[in-house]
Amino acid sequence: MSIQVEIKGIREGLLVTLGDGSWDEREAALLSHLDEKGAFLRGARIALSVGAQPLKAVQLGRLRDAISERGLTLWAVLSDSPKTQETAQNLGLATRISKPRAGRSIKSLETRFQGGEETILVQRTLRSGYRLENEGNVVVIGDVNPGAEIIAGGHVIVWGRLRGMVHAGAQGKEDAVVCALDLSPTQLRIADKISLTPKRRGKPKPEMARLVDGAVVAESWSPKKITGMDTV
Asked: How many beta carbons lie within 10 A of that of residue 10, not counting itself?
C-alpha cells in the first residue's frame, strides 16, 4: 500500500500530512519521502499532521529522533487524538500552528514553463519571517524583505527588491539563476555555492546572479528573457 505524503509551506516551516494506513506504514512512507527530498528539505522545521492516529511516547519520540537524524526538526504534531496531543505536549512539541492574520497570507499561482518545471508565482511582498520553498522555480512580484527566505530547486525571479536570503538550484542545479530588479540579498546561494552581497555602489539596476567557473557572479539582467525559462 502506497501512503500519500503531502508537504506544503507554511509560515513556521513545512506542514506534512500523511495519508491513511497503519502507523508503521505511515512512518516508513514519511521517512522514505524525507530521504528522497533530503537535499531540498534539509534544515526545515516540520509540523506533522497525523489525523486521529493515537501515538505513544516511544513512537513519537522515535520519529522525532529519526527526523532529526535527517537534518530536520519536528516541532509540532497535529492530531484529533487526545492521546497523541498529550504525548506531543509531554515531549515538548506544539499541537497547534498559528493561522495567518488577514492580509498576511501568501496567495500563490502554480504554472508551468516550456521546460516542464513547476513554478510558483507569488504576487505580494514577502516580509520578515516568511519562508517560501518550491522544488521548481519561484517568481515573486513584489519585494523580498530582510528576514524572508526563498528556497527553490530551480530559478528565482524577483520583480522588485531582493533583500532577504535566497537559494536557487537547491537540489544541485548549477545552471539556476537569481534575478531581481534590485539584487541585494543578505545571502545568495546557487547549488552549493554561497555569496554574500557586497556594498552597493550607485543606483540599483536589474541584475542576474549565476555560477561562472564555480563562483557566484552578478551581471546586468535584461528582464525580456531568461535562459531556459522562455514562457509559453
From this structure: 18
Instruction: Pick 108-220's CATH classification: 2.160.20.70, 3.40.50.720, 2.115.10.20, 2.60.120.560.
Output: 2.160.20.70
For 77, which DSSP code?
E
Amino acid at 135: E
5-90 falls under which CATH superfamily?
Cell-division inhibitor MinC, N-terminal domain (3.30.750.50)
Which of 115, 152, 107, 118 is CA-nearest to residue 228?
115
- This prediction has a pTM of 0.51
- Residue ranges per domain, the chain? 5-90, 108-220
Q: What is the pLDDT along the chain (232 residues), one digit of tens a residue?
A: 578 888 887 767 788 999 888 999 999 999 998 888 766 676 778 899 999 999 999 999 999 999 988 888 888 999 999 999 999 998 888 888 765 444 344 444 443 333 345 788 888 888 877 888 888 899 998 899 887 889 999 999 999 999 888 999 988 899 999 999 999 888 888 998 887 655 555 678 899 999 998 888 888 887 654 544 443 2
Triad 149, 113, 196: Cα angle to 5°: 30
Query: How would you list the strands of the sheet with 73-79, edge to edge?
Result: 5-10, 13-18, 45-51, 73-79
